[in-house]
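User: For documentation purposes, I need each entry recorded in a consistent format: the amino acid sequence on its own, followed directly by the corresponding structure tokens. There are two entries in this batch. Please keep commentary to a minimum and don't merge the entries.

Assistant: Recorded as requested. Entry 1:
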Amino acid sequence: MQNSTAKKIVIVGGGSGGLKLATRLGHYYRRNADVSVTLVDGTLTHVWKPLLHEVAAGTLDVHDDECNYLAHARRHHFRFVWGRMMGLNNQRQQIRLEPLDGNGDGRTVPERDLDYDVLVLAVGGISDDFGIDGVANYCYRLDSSSEAERFRRSLLEAYLTAGQAAEKPEPGELDVAIVGGGATGVELAAELDKMRHELNQYGAVGIDAVKDTKMTLLERVPRLLPGLPEALAESTERELSSRGVSVRTGEAVSRVTAHGVHTETGDFIPARFSVWAAGIRGQPFLAKLDGLEISQHDQVMVKRSLQTTTDERIFALGDCAACPLDNEGSAFVPPRAQAADQQSKFLSAQIPRFLENQKLKPYVYRDRGSLVSLDDTAVGTLMGALMGNVNFEGWAARMSYRMLYRQHQRALHGSFRLIVLWISDLISRRTRPRLKLH
């Protein structure tokens, strides 16, 4: 039974940062009846966002790697509330949750209010369409596991249908155009190439998935992976081109239709499947909340303590927060997974200080480098290593990339459970199909 007089920490958003924060605080206060920790999310399970390109390609079954919030909350001493935030009353220290209609049978749970003493917004971000015509209506996105799964299912069904048709696919019928040459776009292109080769191993498909599919990757700046050194970007472009992916840099999109992508140079790339993987901004509902300062990218403005500029009881972290890099405030922490993880760990120490009326420390972003997966290989750079900044690619980079996920699992489940999950993955990999075909 929860203590009604306990200080209430409410975390909205069960992404990597929010879930790790709830886990750490749950353990910190597990024997303290005077403080309760609650996680709020509109879904029932968590999937590590950097894996969504594998979900979209079907090379990862989302059900094998998801974390159930209710079970995780019970194991790690916090409470889970199923719901989506829609409103904020910072005077009464309450958030409002949308009506809940889980079964779609009309029996809804009405709007609810949830009290807090400390509120943490960790709702992540979405891809930024920059107001380009047609993106919202005709593009798939990888902002959530449900969106990645919808794309996977649509693409798979298109392959199966084409394979059973009397005639060969029309030009563009199976083509994919990916807009955005950052990590998400590059990783998706590599994983979809793996998917089409795997499909050719299944006779039921009935077509040559490699020859009948054209993949195009577009990036508006002159090179891929702007966050990585140029040499690694060039290596990545050569790797994708060798796999039959058409890479077009310096190519901005003017509009998207149901039939493909139009560029500002007047070119047209026919594609039945257009995927938007460019830019990032905060969740739209944040701009509608009262009492918060919001940036032009719909992010919550916070101080270096990660407290909002308007209310010290409200914190924000990850992609939904605009946090200054330094005291000058001219630049902000980049919206990257490592920033959310660092901020989650930072707040797990700072929130107890806040509740004890102690002075908070400033958050300092530390760039650890970047790793980008290319299916069976990877490219990346490590910052601040013993020998300075180190660029590397190939098998070593791939192993480092996979270790990032294991570190994520360890932060959530602990070392023992990580080992069990790792062994389970190794065993199941030998028994389950290499591609999700349903």
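Entry 2:
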Amino acid sequence: MDRPARRLDFTDHRRALGDNRYVYPVVSRRSKGLSIGVNLNPDKVCNFDCPYCQVDRRVPPTVTEVELPRLGEELHALLSLVTSGTLWDAPPFDTVAPALRRVNDVAFAGDGEPTAYAGFGEAVALVGEALADFGLSGVKPIVLTNATLLHRPRVAEAIDALYALGGEAWVKLDAGTEALFQAIDGTTFPFGRVLKNLAELAARHPVVVQSMFLRLDGEGPSDAEITAYLGRLQDVIQGGGRVSLVQVYSVARTPATPRVAPLDVPRLEEIAAGVRALGLTAEVYPGRAEP
């Protein structure tokens, strides 16, 4: 007896569609449907080296540059499949649960920090034009960012343009202390700069805070670390910042290093309760089930 085909779900974020180089559709648990990814870092260069990242940088990239005309062609082709409904007839998208067959966003994500790409502003404009061409005013452009470059004028202008299109920034905040920040995000970049950038952006536009919690070498964040994390969020609020949502989540896909494991759901819920106590909205996205 044949086994039923496995549904495409949140654990599968393969970044592939035909021979596309830059644009890919994924079923996203945080988007609650289809997210169209735009990879502005096909060279796999990133100023973070998060141990939970699923990008395997030991494998050399096959594409090292972004060709905006081709990116635009790929995006138009995919939006055509989406608006016609034919995407859901093609494997593996024909296995997606009916409730998830909706397009939520076009997300600048991919294999590195998208705002590091020199043509980020041009890419934002290109996405806006493509969504207008297909009459998809309800599909929002978003950027997933580690906040390291938000203080640069060209990046700030591009972010403002993204919000003008009805979009939003999802800003990473994985820790409350410098030590945990460096361990979880694999960087020596000053934590204070990230916090300042987050606060300044939240003062201009409402932001979504995306926070990854995990076990590293078997250890999850301590109570003191969680208290510090909640204090960082409180600093943003007290500074006049607007946080529309905090995403409390853990590892859903297999990371590049075995040092990482998901944090248990009760602990995630405890963290989310602390966020809600600050008057913020929090959603919990559990990690993958342990084998």
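Summary note for entry 2:
Confidence is low (pLDDT under 50) at residues 1-16.
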